[in-house]
Amino acid sequence: MFNAFIAFITTLLFGVVIFAKIWWDGSGMSFTFTKWYFGIFFIAALVVGACTFAGFIQF
């Protein structure tokens, strides 16, 4: 369970770091892009966390 939580949080942090880099470069992102971006990363984090919890991905 703990490994699944770590995988979930790590995936979300990875998304935040990429978003911060894009934002820092000043590409002028819209609110719609931000919603879709974090929605996709949240779904990806859920999938990674669920796969880790189920044992498909192991640390």
Write the layout of secondary structure elements.
Layout: H1 2-24, H2 31-54
Helix pairs in contact: 1-2
Helix content: over 70%
Low-confidence runs: none
How is the quaternary structure best described? single chain
Please work out how many helical segments DSSP would assign. 2
Rounded to an integer in angstroms, the radius of gyration calculated over CA atoms is 13 Å
Beta fraction of the residues? under 5%
Classify the secondary structure makeup into a structural class.
mainly alpha
Count the E strands. 0
- The overall pLDDT, averaged over residues, is 91
CA distance, first residue to last residue: 12 Å
Largest sheet entry: none
Q: Element order, helices and strands?
A: HH
Tell me, what's the shape?
A: elongated
Describe this structure in words.
80% of the residues lie in helices and 0% in strands. It has helices at residues 2-24, 31-54. The protein is mainly α and 59 residues long. The model has no long low-confidence stretch (mean pLDDT 91). It is elongated.
Give a concise summary:
The protein has 59 residues and is an all-alpha fold. The chain has helices at residues 2-24, 31-54.
